[in-house]
Amino acid sequence: MTPATGPSPAGPVANPVELPLGAPPRVLNLGVGVHGVTSDRDVFRLPGLWQLHVYGYAADLAVDTTAYAIRPGRVSVIPPGKRVEYRYRGRSEHLYAHFELTGDGEPARVPLIQDMGAEAPVLTDLLHRAVAATAHSPARPG
After folding, report:
1. Which residues contact 14 (CB under 8 A, 6 or more apart)?
2. Cα–Cα distance, 2 to 8 (Å, whole number)
3. What CATH number does residue 43 fall under?
């Protein structure tokens, strides 16, 4: 695996993800994931679905053949169909959203994983609220 570097303050984004944001995403799954309890490793691929994760733990992540460091306060956006491997260091809880994008519009280039910085508490709270609202909402037609 090759290590990924973060963006430099004035330079291009390393290993960017291109998000077509011409239309709102269609969120298909939203929740709290708990891993690292029965196994220290997960490998999966989500064809057709983007993955957004907000982390509160340290672990190792590989997306295809590129390695990333997960740390508390980081967020990742993983494109559909990528092979994802997590290596946990004990109980690991994160917030997540799995969603579809239409492909319309000029793509926004963002790092696959980045630190949320001072915005971490606000973004984490917003996603917690979305998870709670989804749990109390009536089912919507597919």
Report:
1. 4, 5, 6, 7, 111
2. 18
3. 2.60.120.280
pTM here is 0.84
Task: Dump pLDDT digits (tens) for 15-67.
Answer: 789 999 888 899 999 999 999 999 999 999 999 999 999 999 999 999 999 99
Amino acid at 8: S
Q: Is residue 2 assigned to a domain?
A: no
Would you say residue 3 lies in a domain? no
The answer as to whether 9 is a domain residue is no
Q: Which amino acid, one-letter code, is at 104?
A: D
Q: Using CA atoms, how far apart are residues 50 and 69, in angstroms rounded to an integer?
A: 19
Show the domain range for 27. 15-135
